[in-house]
UniProtKB/TrEMBL annotation, chain A:
The active site is at S550 (phosphoserine intermediate). Its EC number is 2.7.7.4, 2.7.1.25. Pathway: Sulfur metabolism; hydrogen sulfide biosynthesis; sulfite from sulfate: step 1/3; Sulfur metabolism; hydrogen sulfide biosynthesis; sulfite from sulfate: step 2/3. This is Multifunctional fusion protein. It comes from Sphingomonas ursincola. The gene is cysN. InterPro entries: APS, APS_kinase_dom, CysN_GTP-bd, CysN_II, CysN_NoDQ_III, G_TR_CS, GTP-eEF1A_C, P-loop_NTPase.
């Protein structure tokens, strides 16, 4: 084995010392490449990154001294420097010798500045890999030359391709441990090529390296005379970056903020997602479709003659058109579309599985809308790439599903635009980012189903009955007294000549919802259907009473949003679990406690009490009749 | 017309995008302003992000009363020029107890800065605070998100961070939570210097070498910024010598070591910075306590 010349080929230091202004001018004009490194545990990711930082002189003397001391104390490389210690940041990681989260590192060469996302190889942290990949132009897939293509290699390659990374580098690492064998290298590349082709990766660049010894990192290695390709750094310096590609697309700028310091100025601030723009360009504001002309591109440094994808600017339009955060300003003759139903790939990132039918926030560009996800068409086994049937998506699962938003979304397929096609999903209660997704296309059905306008409106129905429609939504634990109290309330309303209808949980489950069980997903669908029926009845002018446990806040909120403001009345039948369980009118608590009955609310399935109910009744202090009286008084007047 | 953006242009566009996202999603944002060079760049970016409007949030200086005189001067000038409200907060408990860097060591940073910051954020009810931390500064910063959530008691949980994809930031917070936002996360020290040079961003003169009164204390070189006060706290008058010095980083004057230098212009400072063989924070005492995990521990306790 020949010693590798580890001296970087860069003359950076000499230039800094001799002519700092020339150096600064050079540095100022560097471009930027963002890339990720991924591989399994022990493939040598941290060592490789440590090596890149070291070779580009990003390590200071004091850090190097600390590193040498640490290498002796806790290093895994014997007497030699353990580069991995440079990048394993958190105390928790140093103790366990693992990387637990995405870390970002920086180094630069004479031509480029680099941002590296260091992503862990552990299966449970796939969401971090997707996170790191989402902003990367290139992925370095590391393979341990001794181990070859592993399950994790497939998973990471699939994810990198899924997230749209166009440049893949297959770095066959630890070549020093296989005697720089060309045969071994060729074998691994052949195996990877077959796999890559099967998932649609058309091109990749393979190189034999040793992060530890420095082979083919900054310069061709004498140990691999049979390899004639570029060194890793050489390749990273010359590959095309994505912002260049984005500029070739039609102009799009999602509006972040309306800039209005006084009555004489109104500008629209945003980061240009695609194309270029100049004053005089004809533009269209989406989703309204109104057209105007760009009058100015305003910055602190003076107005610009033009701006390109990747720049943050403020644009003024020649006409007073309606435009606010969430709208997209685009080239007038090639605007993006708006739709409310899509097919998308979703990567689930939360410990709590996705709930079909649950309403989440969807954030895409600067738009935030409510969205529900259908049962996935399939989930992908990333090891075998098989499509498997599934009911939901668990943590780290990837699936394809249809989604429906409550408002039209201005979008482009993810393949055309990361900005207008990539989205995150946010849980409305916990506020966590629970998923990420990529839009494929809009479903035709959204454009073809129109509302049929009818002449007898809901106002006509209501006035004929001389009442204001309402939905009295009783929620509470099983055995809290919902049905009993709702029945009492309906009797009182009936005496007052009101037109009412009582939808009872048990009764509905005998008919409309008899295909549903008691899993979280089925409970959500149960409530969605009841909400829709209640809404139709309210449209018909009725006062609807519903008695359902309806354990989740999100679904009660969903029903509230289906109805006009003020028509949904949430009534919390507040009975402590001990009291309801002691009553156990239907003997269900006993069954649940003994394990015969699964997913029973309050026992092994959660109940989320209303935080601010419209009406609350305490059934420990009130009889059902008193509770009903109290509710009716709160409801008056009914016209 | 297409053209390739430079890395500085891309970093600027990213920082501006982040600032605008915060302003449209947070209820009451604030920009932490420490008067150092990173703060100077942050303030300049904020002015660019919202021009011609002034940045729609105040500046908050969590003061330790031990900053350099030049820092107080620049702070007041910049607040006036930017048209932004300047809030200065000094932890009253630290003031009462006379906490200072000589007698109290790490407690000084804890009381004035960590506690002071928490108190100020709680007092004004800010739900999002911009900070100028960079990922290249320190290992635990490298793992922090751009939108970094803190519990009601301002703690950071590194294992429970939200995934941050593309440039989509989820700014929704639970009751009591607040967000620290780091728009210049992806900048390096050199990028900061270069940006200051390209945009003529005003910075504290202490970054440039000049003959100044100095004294040695516990093996490091310090500037004698307020000799009367120093004498009172130390209990003796340190031996003062005039030397040509400058600062690589600015904190409290007794906590920030000076370096002997003759670099008196920006290119010279950058040149010296690039050729130097010690990392930026070596002049600061804060990272060294608690072994290698100093900053990580401080952040979990609520330090910025």
């Amino acid at each position: 084995m020949e010693p590798v010349d580890q001296t970087p080929v860069y003359q950076t230091e000499a230039l800094i010392a001799e002519d700092i202004l020339a150096y600064l001018d050079k540095h100022q004009h560097k471009t930027m490449l963002r890339f990720i490194t991924c591989g399994s545990v022990d493939d040598g990711k941290s060592t490789l990154i440590g090596r890149l930082l070291y070779d580009s002189k990003m390590i200071f003397e004091d850090q190097l001294a600390a590193l040498e001391a640490d290498s002796k104390r806790v290093g895994t490389q014997g007497a030699e420097i353990d580069f991995a210690l440079l990048v394993d940041g958190l105390a928790a990681e140093r103790e366990q010798g693992i990387t637990i989260d995405v870390a970002y590192r920086f180094f630069s060469t004479e031509k480029r500045k680099f941002i590296v996302a260091d992503t862990p190889g552990h299966e449970q942290y796939t969401r971090n890999m997707v996170t790191g990949a989402s902003t990367a132009d290139l992925a370095v897939i590391l393979i341990d030359a001794r181990k070859g293509v592993l399950t994790q290699t497939r998973r990471h390659s699939y994810l990198a391709h899924l997230i749209g990374i166009r440049h893949i580098v297959l770095a066959v690492n630890k070549m020093d441990l296989v005697d720089y064998s060309q045969a071994r290298f060729d074998e691994i590349v052949a195996e990877y090529r077959e796999f890559a082709a099967s998932i649609g990766i058309a091109e990749f660049v393979a190189m034999p390296i040793s992060g530890f010894k420095g082979d083919n990192i900054t310069a061709p290695s004498p140990n691999t005379p049979w390899y004639s390709g570029p060194s890793l750094v050489e390749h990273l310096e010359t590959v095309e970056v994505d912002t260049a590609t984005d500029q070739a697309r039609p102009f799009r700028m999602p509006v972040q903020w309306v800039n209005r310091p006084n009555l004489d100025f109104r500008g629209f601030s945003g980061l240009i997602a695609g194309g270029t723009v100049e004053p005089g360009d004809a533009v269209r504001v989406l989703p309204s479709g109104k057209t105007s002309t760009v009058s100015r591109i305003v910055t602190l440094d003076g107005d610009l003659d033009s701006a390109v994808a990747g720049q943050s600017v403020t644009i003024c339009l020649a006409d007073e058109v309606d435009c606010s955060r969430g709208d997209v300003i685009a080239t007038a003759d090639q605007p993006p579309q708006a739709a409310d139903q899509f097919e998308a790939t979703i990567v689930w990132m939360d410990d709590d599985a996705m709930l079909v039918g649950r309403s989440y926030w969807l954030k895409l560009g600067t738009q935030t809308v409510s969205v529900t996800v259908q049962q996935p068409k399939y989930t992908v086994n990333v090891n075998t790439l098989e499509h498997l049937a599934c009911k939901t998506l668990e943590l780290n699962a990837i699936g394809v599903a249809e989604i429906a938003t409550d408002k039209p979304l201005v979008f482009e397929p993810y393949a055309d635009s990361r900005t207008l096609g990539g989205f995150i999903l946010i849980d409305k209660i916990t506020n966590r980012t629970v998923g990420a997704g990529m839009l494929h296309f809009a479903l035709r059905r959204a454009q073809n189903v129109h509302w049929q306008a009818t002449d007898i409106t809901r106002e006509v129905h209501a006035s004929l009955k001389n009442q204001k429609p309402k939905v009295l939504w009783f929620t509470g634990l099983s055995g809290s007294g919902k049905s009993t109290i709702a029945n009492e309330v309906e009797k009182r309303l009936n005496l007052m000549n009101r037109h009412t209808f009582l939808l009872d949980g048990d009764n509905v489950r005998h008919g409309l919802n008899r295909d549903l069980g008691f899993t979280e997903a089925d409970r959500i669908e149960n409530i969605r259907r009841v909400g829709e029926v209640a809404k139709l009845m309210a449209d018909a002018g009725l006062i609807v009473l519903t008695a359902f446990i309806s354990p989740f806040r999100a679904e009660r909120e969903m029903v509230r949003k289906m109805l006009p403001e003020g028509e949904f009345v949430e009534i919390f039948v507040d009975t402590p679990l001990e009291v309801a369980e002691a009553r156990d009118v239907k003997g269900l608590y006993k069954k649940a406690r003994s394990g015969v009955l699964k997913n029973f609310t309050g026992i092994d399935s959660p109940y989320e009490p209303p935080e601010d109910p419209d009406i609350r009744v305490n059934t420990v202090e009130m009889t059902p009749e008193e509770a009903a009286e109290h509710i009716v008084r709160q409801l008056m007047p009914l016209k | 017309m297409t053209r390739t953006l430079t890395h500085i242009e891309r970093l600027e566009a990213e920082a501006i995008h982040i600032m605008r996202e915060v302003v449209t999603q947070a209820e009451k944002p604030v920009m932490l302003y420490s008067v150092g060079k990173d703060s100077a760049v942050m303030l300049h970016l904020a002015r660019k992000a919202f021009f011609p409007s002034p940045p729609p949030f105040p500046l908050l200086h969590v003061d330790t009363t031990w900053k350099f005189q030049d820092m107080y001067k620049l702070r007041d000038t910049m607040a006036r020029e930017s048209g932004m409200e300047l809030l200065v907060y000094q932890n009253p408990e630290a003031a009462d107890r006379g906490i200072n860097p000589f007698d109290h060591g790490p407690l000084h940073t804890d009381m004035w800065k960590t506690e002071g910051l928490k108190q100020a954020l709680d007092l004004y009810g800010f739900d999002a605070a911009f900070g100028g931390a960079r990922r290249d500064e320190e290992k635990s910063r490298a793992k922090e998100r751009i939108f970094s959530f803190r519990t009601a008691s301002h703690g950071w949980d590194p294992k429970n961070q939200r995934p941050e994809l593309w440039n989509l930031y989820n700014a929704r917070k639970n009751k009591g939570e607040s967000i620290r936002v780091f728009p210049i996360s992806n900048w390096t020290e050199l990028d900061i210097w270069q940006y200051i040079q390209l945009n003529n961003v005003p910075i504290v003169p202490l970054y440039f070498a000049k003959v100044r009164p100095t004294f040695e204390w516990e093996g490091q070189l310090f500037m004698a910024d307020d000799i009367a006060r120093l004498e009172k706290v130390l209990g003796y008058r340190p031996e003062i010598t005039n030397r040509s010095i400058r600062f690589r980083t600015l904190g409290c004057f007794p906590l920030t070591g000076a370096v002997e230098s003759t670099a008196s212009t920006l290119p010279e400072v950058i040149q010296e910075t690039l050729l130097t063989t010690t990392s930026e924070r070596q002049g600061r005492v804060i990272d060294k306590d608690a072994g290698g995990a100093g900053m990580e521990k401080k952040k979990q306790e609520g330090y910025f």
